[in-house]
Design a protein that fits this description.
Domain BTB: 200-274
Pathway: Protein modification; protein ubiquitination
Protein name: BTB domain-containing protein
Low-confidence stretches: 99-105, 238-244
Strand content: 25-35%
Family: Belongs to the Tdpoz family.
Number of strands: 14
Mean pLDDT: 78
Length: 352
């Protein structure tokens, strides 16, 4: 209870003044002919109208401006307004990377700084302009292999300001007497179990005679697809005498890839790989993961290979991605080849 003298904990509150705004953009695609073929000075081409913040706008484009060697762009408020409109505008070029059969979106290069636009009273049409060299637009268009250039106009319309309640800070944390929780050791323990072979009830035998002891319950729990592939009716299995672990023969998988596959099943982690062997190890493991329907392992291997795409590996990596339906890995290869210098290096390396 607070005493009459006003003693006690004071109340507190907070609020903020924030801008009420609407944001949008309009892409104006300009055919290269409009930049290369002669046009009379001052000829105006208008964009289709677009709406941002409840107002109608247009971009006015002059292929040949009054400034020699330049083109000009204007943002115009294309309506009669009852009161002043305040906005912010920025023009930029949206570039596309092109190769033989695909387009890679998109990179922005600013043509102007963000600038303010404000109408002066009701019914006034207001504009904001930017000038850029025609040769710069043509060079960017040629560099990215396209026959057109796209100008993006970002518009922010300010509708005023309003008060908003501030988010209250979280209450201070009380000092806990609980001891810190040690990290989980499940991954380590399961990895040790695989390494030691304790309690193994199945042995996998590969084409080369290598044998790998494992535990049926772990593999069955980790993947129904692995369980069906390795222990189903189609598996080649023979039981050893005197209660020894059964033998499951696995064909078409290398020892390194199968060892890593088992390790992943027990620890959910990729193997440690020696420097210089990354591509071959991850490629073999990706193929094994695809065969045994381990989608997460397949993606992990594909991501590792994406980081290692270069002129020497792109041919085999692209073929691997096609063979095992790895769309992200395929896109990384094609993105690499989209650079003319990389394409020439790959052709020189592989004689494509």
């Amino acid at each position: 209870m607070v005493s009459a003298s006003g003693r006690g904990k004071p109340s507190s509150s907070a609020s903020s003044i924030v801008a009420d705004r609407s944001v949008g953009y309009h892409d104006l695609k300009i055919d290269g002919c409009a930049l290369t073929f002669g046009a009379p000075t001052g000829r105006l081409i208008k964009s289709c109208p677009f709406t941002v913040g409840g107002h109608r706008w247009r971009i006015w484009f002059y292929p040949v401006s009054s400034l020699p060697g330049y083109v000009s762009l204007y943002l115009v408020l294309d309506e009669i307004v009852a009161k002043s409109v305040t906005a912010q505008v920025q023009f930029s070029v949206v570039l596309e990377k092109r190769a033989l059969f695909f387009v890679k979106r998109e990179k922005k290069e600013a043509l102007s700084r963000s600038a303010d636009l404000k109408t002066h009273g009701a019914g006034v049409c207001q504009e904001w302009s930017v000038f850029t060299k025609r040769v710069n637009l043509l060079a960017g268009m040629a560099r990215h292999g396209g026959g057109s250039v796209t100008i993006r106009c970002d518009v922010t319309v300010f509708n005023g300001f309003r008060a908003a309640a501030a988010v209250a800070p979280p209450p201070p944390k009380s000092k806990s007497k609980l001891s810190p929780l040690p990290p989980s050791e499940l991954q380590k323990h399961l990895g040790d179990l695989l390494q030691s072979g304790r309690g193994a009830d199945v042995v996998f035998e590969l084409d080369g005679g290598e044998r790998f002891p494992a535990h049926r319950c772990v593999l069955s729990a980790r993947s129904a697809a692995v369980s069906a592939e390795l222990f189903g009716a189609g598996a080649k299995e023979g039981s050893a005498a005197n209660g020894a672990a059964g033998v499951v023969r696995v064909e078409g998988v290398g020892a390194g890839a199968f060892r890593a596959l088992l390790r992943y099943a027990y620890t959910d982690a990729l193997p440690e790989v020696k420097r210089g062997e990354e591509n071959s190890v991850y490629a073999d493991l990706l193929a094994a993961a695809d065969r045994f329907s381990s989608q997460r392992l397949k993606v992990m291997c594909a991501n590792k290979l994406c980081e290692r795409v270069d002129a020497g590996t792109v041919k085999n990596t692209l073929a691997l991605a096609e063979r095992h339906r790895c769309d992200g890995l395929k896109e990384a290869c094609l993105d690499f080849l989209a650079d003319p210098a990389n394409l020439r290096a790959a052709i020189g390396t592989h004689g494509l």
